[in-house]
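If your schedule permits, I should be very grateful for your opinion on a structural question. Thank you for your consideration; the sequence and its tokens are set out here:

===
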Amino acid sequence: MRSGILVGFLLAGQLAMGQDESFRVYADHPRLLLTSQRLRLLKRERQRETMRSRQFITLIQGSAQMPEPGFALALYYEISDDAARGKQAVDWALGAGADLRQLALVYDWCQPLLSPAQARTLAAKIRRLLDQQRPAGVGDWRDRIFALIATADSDSDQHPEEAPLRDAIRNWWRTQFAPGLASGQTTLALPDLYAVLEVLHAVRDNLQIDLREAAPAYFRDLPKYQILGNYPAPLKVAENEYRIPVYQGTGEPNLERAALARVAGLSGVAYDNNALENQFLQGWLIQDRYQLKSPFGAPYEFLWANPYQPGLSYYQMPGVFHDPHSGALFARSSWDEDADWFGLYKGEVQFFHDGHITVLNQAGRASDHPEAIPMGLASVVFGRTPMKFQMQGGTVLVVGLKPQHKYLVEADDEEMCEGITDRAGTLALEYAAGQAAGVRIHEQTEPN
């Protein structure tokens, strides 16, 4: 009952804040991602022939096979005024192109190249895809929002974009998606965050609405997840090195998704470069060895990376990320690349050591592992009740207990206290650094 009342208050507050909101698009093209400030920066990068601009330009001028040709060619046109490349993007969009997001980008970025007939044809193609689409995931909603904003001028007197944009923001984002992020019911993998960031940019740039306000705590802590949710050891391939975001199972990593995880971080810094957490994220991302150079990644790297944005050393961050709402937990023993790493993600418990992932909650694995795993100033303990263990202070993370359940915790020379596990069954305990003591945990039973 209480949770229902709280949700009601939150929704009422959001509606009150949204009384003066407008969902009409008036901005000139380009509207999507390329603000005037960002476009100036990109053109300056091209003139200076920086590493990132050279890589992107070399691929385009060398006619490399681009996985996202509409996006890449339209971006090149915007920063170079090369009409020939822009017309290639238009031809792709009018021809074989079927990706709604890329069609919207071409329509938006290549407006000066579109004849009136081409503009009508491409807008009609985008509308047909919109009518066929039944958005499910965040990527679908991102595509829909892009298409609505890009084509808003196709019937400017009527503003047909207004009602569907209001629906996307108020009924999808604020009523379904953002509450899921805040409560932990929705857990996004690091690569999937990029679609979220594109939504944030498009809506703020065109409607002056900051969608983070619907889940402020989630977005405040997001940069920590984007740093600690990666395995410590990078993967070296021919073109560059990749940091590998956590994934389920022990198969081979997907480099395209690793690239998207990096791009999500770069675009997050671009969205709010003043936030302290994003300054740590910038320090994590901006090392040149991780620059994306592949035909898939180079356009994104050029679009979002800002080497002039100062970053803070992530070595100053705690090496633990714990989201009690979703139960996601990541900890590393140090910031070195040979560090050990522990992760609890979407119900899977992983331990990364010496370049290898071990899934610990498979049959027999957890019992074979040492009871306590040291993680720098933190330690991870596999729970059972009743249980007792020795700890050396700091953060103690007891995993594997009953989810959202009450436990009694007693440490030497301290009074017994009550703790409640999170959605994944983790009990987070905090002690003074260096406080060696025995800890006892009992399941609290409800009185009859």
Summary: The radius of gyration is 24 Å. The CA atoms of residues 44 and 201 lie 21 Å apart. The chain has two domains: 23-315, 318-443. The first strand starts at residue 235 and ends at 236.
